[in-house]
Amino acid sequence: MINVGVIGTGYIGPVHIEALNRISGVKVKAVTDVNPELARKTAENYNVEHVYNDYTEILRDPSIDVIHNCTPNRLHYSITKEAIKYEKHVLSEKPLAMTLSEAEELAELAEKKGIVTGIDFCYRYYPVVQEMAVRVRRGDAGKVRMVSGTYFQDWLFFPTDYTWRLEKSESGESNIAADLGSHWFDLIQFVTGLKVVEVMADFATLIPVRKKPTRQVIAFEEAKEAETVDVKIEIEEYAAVLFRLSNGAPGSFTTCQACAGRKSDTEFQIYGDQCSFAWNHSKSTELWIGHREKPNETLIESPTALDSSTAAYATLPGGHPLGYHDAVLNLFKDFYQVLKNGKEPATNIARPTFSAGYEEMKILNALVESHKTRRWVQVKNL
């Protein structure tokens, strides 16, 4: 049995626990949170055996094999570094750290210590996204000419909407580019096999003063009736990016968390010189394939319709759609397969490790610099 400790029981912590409870040979043994009541409630809801007072108790527990770091951004580096010191394997939320130097240190330290690592870039684990990656990488699209896409939400639409992600002390130099942008750029690099090498970014704070609840607010929670204080917002809820890929192809990306009616609407499109591919989270079981001289196609998620290397991620018969929890589960299964078997899963495309998290921090670092200097910025070479 592989014993797991989950640190952080806000929105994403229970998502991790639900997926872990579906993996054979894995047990969530302990949880902790800065809010003890939230940790106790989570433990009761998911039948977790132990609730620790703080994360150091989990790290010092010799029976815990793996740490899931589900804390705010500012704690990713310190907790993960200490977990590696205790020789715990680590699966972290994104971004990997607050700064590029921290991310580099974690990636190097984990490799040196032989730690199995993972980062929750879960959107790449929808079955048809895996299928798109296989097809684009084997050349079905031809040469990639351009890419584009968006990621819109509305959970920060009102001045009364609030999250720790809007605070520099908790989130770092960026809110939405670090949060949603990291997912989107991971998808682009994952599907194309190309790297983002240069960026031009524009950030904007759309609601400069917000009403911060005096009590803790979990992500996506509405807290309009809570007692509040006015807080000046210093980081962005909007970002637009022009970029270039390593083959010279141009791209564009826009994201915003104040778009009424858009709940979690992400889309990315790959345009090659043979055909096009597109995926939208609101229709997550469909892969759109565009043609010039014949009818367009829509591939529906089904194990019998996918490439043999990706069919295993579609665990239900066609017409029975998988969802967000299943994408997280697919990622976790690959992570724990490495722990159980001592080797990477037999798929065509590598899973997301701290190396992927480090790559995304390079992009984020360039985005922040570009916004501040109002110019194109090269992404640091790998």
- Low-confidence runs (pLDDT<50, min 5 residues)? none
- The number of helical segments is 10
Q: How confident is the prediction overall: mean pLDDT? A: 95
SS class: alpha/beta
SS strand fraction: 15-25%
How much helical structure, as a percent, in the residues?
25-40%
**Compute the gyration radius: what is it?**
20 Å
Q: Biggest sheet: strands, sense, closure?
A: 9 strands, mixed
General shape: globular
Q: Spell out the CATH superfamily of the domain at 128-319 and 367-373.
A: Dihydrodipicolinate Reductase, domain 2
**Beta strand count:** 17
CATH architecture of the domain at 128-319 and 367-373: 2-Layer Sandwich
Q: Report the CATH topology name of the domain at 128-319 and 367-373.
A: Dihydrodipicolinate Reductase, domain 2
Name the helix and strand elements from N-terminus to C-terminus, one letter apiece.
Answer: EHEHEHEHEHEHEHHEEEEEEEEEHHE
Question: Would you summarize the structure shown here?
Answer:
With 382 residues, the protein is an alpha/beta fold. It is built from ten helices and 17 strands. The protein has a nine-stranded mixed sheet with strand order 16-15-14-13-7-12-11-8-17. A six-stranded parallel sheet has the order 3-2-1-4-5-6, with helices on both faces.
List keywords for this structure.
oxidoreductase activity, alpha/beta, six-stranded parallel β-sheet, 382 residues, Dihydrodipicolinate Reductase, domain 2, 32% helix, nine-stranded mixed β-sheet, 10 helices, oxidoreductase, globular
Structure description:
- This protein is of the alpha/beta class.
- It has a domain at 128-319 and 367-373: Dihydrodipicolinate Reductase, domain 2 (2-Layer Sandwich), CATH 3.30.360.
- The protein is built from ten helices and 17 strands.
- Strands 16-15-14-13-7-12-11-8-17 form a nine-stranded mixed beta sheet.
- α2 links the parallel β2 and β3 (50-51).
- It is globular, with a radius of gyration of 20 Å.
- The two termini are 36 Å apart.
- The mean pLDDT is 95.
- This is Oxidoreductase family, NAD-binding Rossmann fold protein.
- One of its GO terms (molecular function) is nucleotide binding.
- Pfam families: GFO_IDH_MocA, GFO_IDH_MocA_C3.
- Residues 130-277 form the GFO/IDH/MocA-like oxidoreductase domain.
